[in-house]
Structures are given as structure tokens and as C-alpha cells.
Amino acid sequence: MRFTCSVPARTRAGSRFVPWIAGLLWTSWAAAAPPDGAVPVASALEAVRAGSGWLVQTDDSLQLLDGNGRVRAERALRGKHLESRVLGGRMLAVVIESGKQLVHAFEIDLERMQIADRPTLAITDLDVEAACLHRDAQGLDHLVVIGKDGRAEQWVLGDGKPARLRRLALVPGAADCAVDDASARLFVSEPGIGVWSYDLRGEGTATRAPVALRAPFGDL
């Protein structure tokens, strides 16, 4: 049985830790996929915990699979840009609903293998293209939502209503992102130019720094 999946583009645009994560994800998926072909074709996937399952975004649903590939919980959702963070026995996941200005958030109980809905973000000022999570040093979860014109918003996700922290001006054409939680750096790629990083700490203007640029400005 051949298994088909695609690692999201966001895992390929960033610093040296990003390709390593993408490679590790693919290796783990190939090793964990059950022989009976129960795992669906995925447009995006996230490891739940080592050896214990997967959170999978298919064309029309978000599925929580156990280590044997069985669907334990599911939400009907045409989504893209699946992103997650794990803390203890729980997992936070966000998905952009395709064709709408909505970012859905879910809290997943990894012991009971259940999905619970968290408040949905209705983005009114951006034409939503991508979103990525960041967990800061205090354990607070942030969400960066990127619009098609390079404008972005940084939100703080609480147990109740999410709060917008600030607006960001990113590079034009940015269609994906990744965050290194340890350094609080947001990575985005600028088509034809290269990769930039932004500091997510603080509430002022986020300054950018080059990570890898196209020649003659860099080695790409």
C-alpha cells in the first residue's frame, strides 16, 4: 500500500530547524503508517505525540487518528494551513477555513482523543492567506495571521475571547510562515528574494532581519 501526503509549504520556509522538522515528520509518518491503508490522504498533518497518532487535515475534514490510523474524532471543515502546539496532555490546533475569513481553533485532549471547539477568529481587515502559532516564554499562545498583501495581525489566544495584540507589515507576497518558539522569531519567504525573520516579542514595530537571500544579496 502506498501512502501519499504533502508536508505543508510552511515547513520548508525558514531557518535550519525547519527542514529538519519536515524531514523528521516525513520519516515518522512513513514509519507509523499502518499497513491496512487506514490513513487518509492528507493535505497537512501534525504529529500528536511520539508514536501515538496524527492530526490530519483532509480536503473536507479535520481528523484525529490514533497510532493505528483509526479516526477517533473528527470535524467537518474545508481547511488549510493546519498548525499545532502540544503542552502536556493537550494540543492546540488552528485551521483556516478555505474561502472564508475564519480561523478555527481546537483544543485536543490527547488522553481521551477528543476534539473541543475554541473561539473562532473572524478576520475582517485581511484577505487571509496563512496563519501560524507561537507559544511564548510565559506559555501564552499567539497566532499570526497573514493577508495576501503582506499585512498581518498578531493575536493572543486565551481560554476566552482572543485579543489582537498588534498589526504587522510583512514582505509583499508572503504566503506562508513558521515560528521558532525558542527565539520568538517569525519566518516568512518573499518570492524571488529570500527568507526574512521578525521578532515577535514586545508590542511595537516588528523589525525584520535577513535569513537567506537570493544572489547578489546572499547565497540562494
Description:
The structure is a single chain. The chain is globular, with a radius of gyration of 17 Å. Helix content is 7%, strand content 49%. By secondary structure, the chain is mostly beta strands. The chain contains 1 helix and 16 strands. The longest helix has 16 residues, at 17-32. The chain has one helix at residues 17-32; strands at residues 44-49, 53-57, 61-66, 71-76, 79-87, 90-97, 102-109, 114-122, 128-135, 141-147, 151-157, 163-169, 177-180, 185-190, 194-199, 208-213. A hairpin with a 3-residue loop joins strand 14 (185-190) and strand 15. Strands 1-2-3-4 form a 4-stranded antiparallel beta sheet, covered by helices on one side.
Task: Please supply descriptive tags for the structure shown above.
single chain, 220 residues, mainly beta, 4-stranded antiparallel β-sheet, 1 helix, globular, disordered N terminus
Which residues form runs of ≥5 with pLDDT under 50? Answer: 1-37
Number of helices: 1
Order of helices and strands: HEEEEEEEEEEEEEEEE
Beta-strand fraction estimate: over 45%
Radius of gyration: 17 Å
| Mean pLDDT level | 79
Q: What is the rounded distance between the termini?
A: 38 Å
Structural class: mainly beta
The amount of helix comes to: under 10%
